């Protein structure tokens, strides 16, 4: 009985606790990201933003959440009920499961798998299904148009993202996210050698999360709200949470690939007093601030320009980057993988 | 081992059930969704075998790209179920034949297992024995022993891609396209003229 407990029951409880330890702060983070977005954009517009509920409006996200929770869920009569209800759940749960492989600190990760970065890439490429299913199941032309735009956009930008990930892999010599960060500990943060790639990657994450200036799927001026027009109450809230959780996820991914994950900027006294997870969160917050900054600054792209940017600008640049980075690594014999094999 | 066994039966059962639903669902979009479910559970089976790289590639390529295109097309098609029913009997013999061949081949594989009872030793996942990561093992194989086949496969895909583009691309002389070079090289002084207008006099 004791053996049964330790081999079967306890691991399950332990994993559940780990999941809770990730998901609960993440949800709080999502709630306060919406608050931060409103405050930051308000400051950039010389407005005040939410300031009524609680001190400095700090309870605003909770009030919004309560409001959405107590509203009625309306399912349109022409909708495909099952797919309609499934779409927001898929969007939301995909935004959460990706966190399983994100290392928040040295060894602080739920699943330290060898193909971590591929897992992240796979999960982020699935995000399009929530959108497509929502658009189709709503049986509404605005939702459908939004979904089609989104699908085309996400598939286009994923390709250049994939190639940029490959350049990082060539430099880091591993698909394991912890190893990628440790490779940056031994050399420099990858933003320094791969600066252009980091910029393209960040712009692609904006497109991948349907954020400004690439928020055509939900362009409110032409498509009402895009793929989630017909959603209300908690089904809408799940889309909303999923979108913001995806933003945090993409910020985390950029942090790991280019900004050295949990590493302090310099490994000297005042910087390495802070523990790794705090550094990780600080870096993510900086990136999220840029997400919000971009939203307050840039006008929306036109659709043909968006597609041109993805296919005719980013794709050739990132393809060339794979060749160039690979060539440089080979020519100067600095591949960490080859060095590891040589030292064996 | 018990948990692996249970996970195997779960993934396998869902894969088979989803496969059945792909061909029996009335709504083509539901078929695609079930296809995605089947892909997903096959990826789970790969993970159970220790082929994590293949599992992820299966999800990235098939679920993340191919099935999205399927879905894209199927959603936009106006498929009438009655028309599809009409063709059912006509295609039944062909379908039955292909199904028969597949079942026979599966039977042969199962049979060889029984006849040559030490053949299953060859099926043990080779990478586990090599003690490297999946990715490294696959890379070492593909880029050394099989590099020509790998390149040939790449060329075939490239030709197929160019072929598809050539076949579907049509010149549309009436479409108005933006010339980005012109657009970027435009300068405010070329198009804008700023005049000082004193009040009450007009331009």
Descriptive report:
The complex is a heterodimer of chains A (about 350) and B (about 200). Chain A is mainly α and about 350 residues long. Chain A is built from 13 helices and no strands. The longest helix of chain A has about 45 residues, at about 1-45. Chain A is globular. The model of chain A has no long low-confidence stretch (mean pLDDT about 85). Chain B is mainly α and about 200 residues long. Chain B has helices spanning about 1-25, 30-50, 50-75, 80-115, 125-130, 135-145, 145-170, 180-185, 190. The longest helix of chain B has about 35 residues, at about 80-115. The mean pLDDT of chain B is about 85. The interface of A and B includes residues 118 and 162 of A.
Report the C-alpha radius of gyration of chain B, rounded.
28 Å
Number of strands of chain B: 0
Mean pLDDT of chain B: 83
The oligomeric state is heterodimer
> What is the CA-based Rg of chain A, rounded?
21 Å
Shape of chain B: elongated
Major beta-sheet overview of chain A: none
Intertermini distance of chain A:
44 Å
- Total strands of chain A: the figure is 0
What would you say about this model in short?
With 344 residues, chain A is mostly helical. Chain A is 70% helix and 0% strand.
Topology, element by element:
The complex is a heterodimer of chains A (about 350) and B (about 200).
Chain A: H1 2-44, H2 60-70, H3 81-97, H4 116-137, H5 141-172, H6 177-186, H7 195-208, H8 220-223, H9 233-258, H10 269-272, H11 276-297, H12 303-331, H13 336-343
Helix pairs in contact in A: 1-2, 1-9, 1-11, 2-9, 3-4, 3-9, 4-5, 5-6, 5-7, 5-12, 7-9, 9-11
Chain B: H1 2-24, H2 28-48, H3 52-76, H4 81-115, H5 126-130, H6 134-145, H7 147-168, H8 180-185, H9 188-191
Helix pairs in contact in B: 1-2, 2-3, 6-7
């Amino acid at each position: 009985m004791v053996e049964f407990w330790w081999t079967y029951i306890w691991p399950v409880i332990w994993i559940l606790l780990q999941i809770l330890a990730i998901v609960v702060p993440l949800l709080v983070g999502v709630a306060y990201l919406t608050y931060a977005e409103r405050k930051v954009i308000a400051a950039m517009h010389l407005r005040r933003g939410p300031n009524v509920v609680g001190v400095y409006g700090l309870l605003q996200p909770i009030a919004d959440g309560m409001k959405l929770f107590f509203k009625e869920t309306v399912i349109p009569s022409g909708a495909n009920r099952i797919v309609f209800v499934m779409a927001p759940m898929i969007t939301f749960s995909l935004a959460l499961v990706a966190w399983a492989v994100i290392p928040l600190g040295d060894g602080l990760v739920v699943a330290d798998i060898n193909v971590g970065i591929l897992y992240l890439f796979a999960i982020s490429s699935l995000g399009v299904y929530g959108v497509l299913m929502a658009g189709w199941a709503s049986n509404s032309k605005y939702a459908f148009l939004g979904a089609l735009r989104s699908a085309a956009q996400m598939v286009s930008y994923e390709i250049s993202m994939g190639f940029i990930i490959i350049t990082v892999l060539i430099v880091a010599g591993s698909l394991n996210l912890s190893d990628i960060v440790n490779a940056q500990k031994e050399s420099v943060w990858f933003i320094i050698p791969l600066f252009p790639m980091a910029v393209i990657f960040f712009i692609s994450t904006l497109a991948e999360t349907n954020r400004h200036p690439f928020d055509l799927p939900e362009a409110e001026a032409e498509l009402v709200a895009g793929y989630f027009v017909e959603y209300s109450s908690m089904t809408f809230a799940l889309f909303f949470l999923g979108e913001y959780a995806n933003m945090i996820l993409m910020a985390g991914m950029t942090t790991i690939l280019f900004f050295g994950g949990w590493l302090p900027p310099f490994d000297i006294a005042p910087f390495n007093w802070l523990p790794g997870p705090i550094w990780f969160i600080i870096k993510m917050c900086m990136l999220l601030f840029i997400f919000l900054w971009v939203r307050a600054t840039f006008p929306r792209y036109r659709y043909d320009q968006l597609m041109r940017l993805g296919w005719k600008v980013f794709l050739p640049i990132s393809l060339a980057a794979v060749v160039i980075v690979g060539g440089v690594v080979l020519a100067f014999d600095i591949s960490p993988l080859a060095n590891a094999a040589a030292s064996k | 081992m018990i948990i692996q066994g249970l996970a195997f039966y779960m993934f396998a059962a869902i894969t088979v059930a989803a496969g059945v639903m792909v061909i029996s669902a009335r709504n083509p979009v539901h078929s695609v969704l079930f296809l995605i479910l089947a892909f997903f559970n096959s990826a789970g089976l790969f993970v159970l075998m220790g082929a994590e790289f293949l599992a992820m590639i299966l999800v990235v390529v098939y679920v993340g790209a191919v099935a999205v295109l399927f879905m894209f097309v199927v959603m936009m098609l106006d498929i009438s179920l009655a028309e599809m029913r009409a063709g059912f009997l006509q295609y039944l013999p062909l379908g039955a034949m292909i199904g028969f061949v597949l079942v026979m081949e599966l039977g042969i594989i199962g049979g060889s297992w029984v006849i040559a009872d030490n053949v299953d030793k060859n099926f043990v996942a080779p990478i586990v024995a090599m003690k490297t990561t999946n990715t490294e093992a696959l890379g070492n194989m593909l880029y050394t022993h099989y590099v020509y086949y790998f390149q040939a496969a790449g060329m075939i895909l490239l030709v197929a891609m160019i072929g598809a583009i050539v076949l579907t691309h049509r010149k549309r002389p009436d479409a108005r396209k933006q010339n980005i070079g012109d657009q970027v090289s435009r300068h405010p002084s070329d198009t804008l003229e700023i005049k000082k207008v004193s009040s009450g006099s007009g331009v």
